[in-house]
Structure formats: structure tokens, C-alpha cells
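Honest question from a wet-lab person: if I give you the sequences of every part of a complex, can you actually get the arrangement of the whole thing, not just the pieces? Trying it with mine:
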Amino acid sequence: MGDPTFSIGMKLRHARKIKGMRLCDLADQVECSEGFLSKLENDRVKPSLQLLHRIVAVLETSISNLFSESNDSIVSRAGTRQVLHTSNIRPGEGVGLETLVSPSAGHLLFGAIHIVRAGGGSSGTIVHEGEELGYVLEGELDLNVDGVEYHLMPGDSFFFPSKMPHGYRNPTDKETKVLWVNTPPTF
Amino acid sequence: MGDPTFSIGMKLRHARKIKGMRLCDLADQVECSEGFLSKLENDRVKPSLQLLHRIVAVLETSISNLFSESNDSIVSRAGTRQVLHTSNIRPGEGVGLETLVSPSAGHLLFGAIHIVRAGGGSSGTIVHEGEELGYVLEGELDLNVDGVEYHLMPGDSFFFPSKMPHGYRNPTDKETKVLWVNTPPTF
DNA sequence: TCTTATTGGTCAAGTCACTTGACCAATAAG
DNA sequence: CTTATTGGTCAAGTGACTTGACCAATAAGA
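Yes, you can. This is the full assembly:
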């Protein structure tokens, strides 16, 4: 039937979930009421442009993001994904991690990302809420979960709650591709 | 430090989430109190073997499942995954779908599965709660979401809320491999 | 002009799913 | 015959979200 689109409300909710915020947290920072945000995310009201501006600023997205790519955002094609260099890691240094944004951007519950990692370096040890699941497409990955080291080869997969301290690194000098999916920090 | 294991409570909660049940639903069917189930899933009490039996019956799992594979369940190796032929579809017929259980079995929030589909046939049209995300590893997949048909090739990915009517089929006579992840019916 | 809507928003009560603490019966132990 | 311990219930509490009643400000009609 109609074009498969995602409403502004859905996109806003996703953006909030990705940042692990509750409605009341967002309401605090945006300086509006929790109730209004609830209605907004359920597409029962439309915000003023001023308010929308404050919201996207807090959620680190953009207004155009909310309106663009409404159509055909269901599928994202190989080679057409946007590459995000992970912030505060300079390319070619540290973990050397690039994130190919999968269909997730602007959507709902999944914080799904497709990671391409160039060799060398190591992530720090990470602890947070949510859960992680991954599948190694190419290359090798050393995954450390709760003090146990796993050496992963293509076709291997993993799953763990994000609150288990975890880190990873690419032990080779070749690129490693991992399909990495995680739930938002809070559910 | 300690072995990365998943508690019985976590496994029970996962099994329940996968079936989209609330604590009160399970309590109804098992004929025990909601409060007790809550404590059970948070590992604050231990159930009698009788009660545990009734619970795993409703959740369609097994007691041994709850205790086994406690260790090293973080990682599942290529070629070592259990194959589940989707129930009420006879192999070689219909969608011809096999599910390679990924690390998900016995775990928490993700209903993550690794699907291997032999050629031919078609899934029906599916509508439910939750969300779906997939990545085509090999072969081709025709995905229909909300009336729109997408032809997917390796490297393509998709995302949609499960309440959009969706179906899929393999238009070729070769096997298609999709890494298919979905959130539980209710969050 | 003075109604009369409509829009953008607040506030407090309600709801839903889950959690927690108080309590209780039945078996075990001293 | 006390006194714990275990397995369990019940009802009140909690956290996050939703909803309905209401209100001020701008717009529109007669």
C-alpha cells in the first residue's frame, strides 16, 4: 500500500533511545514537558520549529534528518551506506574504526551498525547497558568479554549483555568487517 | 574475572521475551504468582523442580537448557550452530527455511537468528510486534514490506518494524544466507 | 470589534509491567 | 517443642510512559 515511511515521532523516539535517555531526561534538557514529548513521539501533536530545534540539538540529530530519507529507508544497499568515523578517534590511529551506518539511522529500537575496522589498536574496556550481538564477515577479531579472550574468524558470532566489561581489537594488519548490532542502552 | 555465564533468571527472562509474554501471562499459565516469577528472573529465589518443570513447559524450553552451555555461550563458532528446521514447514517444501540458532538460545533480549534458506517457495505475509533487521550474506532475497518489493543482493541490508506486513522469498534456485535479527515481540 | 476556533503546550492523574517487602505454611533441624 | 529455612502469595510501590483536562496565544469569521 502506502510508502513504507517512518514518522517523525518514530525517528525521534529512536534518536532518544540510542542516547539512552528517558522522556523525562529529554524533557529536562529541552525544557518542555514530558507529556508533550510523549505525544510528539506518538505523532499526536506537532512541535513548533523552535522546540524541534532544541530537541534535535540535544539528540544530536538534525531536522532534515527527521524529514529526509522517509521513503525506501527500509533497505540500504551495499556500498551506499554513509561512513561515520567514530568521534574522537582519528582515522589511522587507535582502534581505527569506521562505522557504516546501516538502515538504523533515524529508526527505532536497534542501534544497528556495520563496522569496518582497519588493523591495529584496541578499543578500551567498555561497560554499559543494553546487549550486543555480532557476526564476523571478514578478517579476524579479538574479543574480550568479562576477562575472557575470544579469537573470532569469519562466520563466528557473539552475544553478550553490554554490562559485561568488553573490548575488542584487530590483531591483524588487514581490515576486519563485523556486522555489529546492539540494543539501545535502556529498555 | 569469573566465567562469563548467564544465570537461570536471565535465561528464563529471555525465553519469556522471545515468546512475547508478560510476567502475568506466564504466571497465569504456570499457575504461580507474578511476584515470584519476578524474583525468579532476578535470581532472588530458586523454584522447586516441580514449578520449574511447569515453567519450561510453557516456555517451550527444557530444564537442561537452563543449566547447560553456561560457559562459552558468548561466542558461537562457524559451523557449530544447531540447525532448527522451522516447525510446521517440511524440509524441501514451502519456504524451505532452516534456522541456524545463533548465540541467542538461552540469552536475553535479542531474538537473533541466522537463517539459511534453500531456493523456492515463499513465506506468507507476516505481521507482529517488534522490529527486524537483516543483512544478506549470500544469494538473493525478495523482500516485501508494506506492499513494496525489494530485491536484495549480498551486502544489502534492511530494517523495519515488524508490524509492517512483510514477507520474503528466495527467487533463485540457490541457497540464500541472511543474518536476520529481531527484537522480541514486546519491549 | 467581539466571539470562536485552532495551535502549542502544561500538569496531574492514570496505566502497564515489573519489583519489593511483609507475611505464611510446610518441612527440617536443634 | 521451639526455631529456622525454603517455597511461595499478596498487595503496595516504582519507573516510564500515556492520556485527558485545561490554558494562553495567535488566527479567523461575522
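Two things worth pointing out. The domain at 83-182 of chain B is CATH 2.60.120.10 (Jelly Rolls). Chain B has two domains: 8-67, 83-182.
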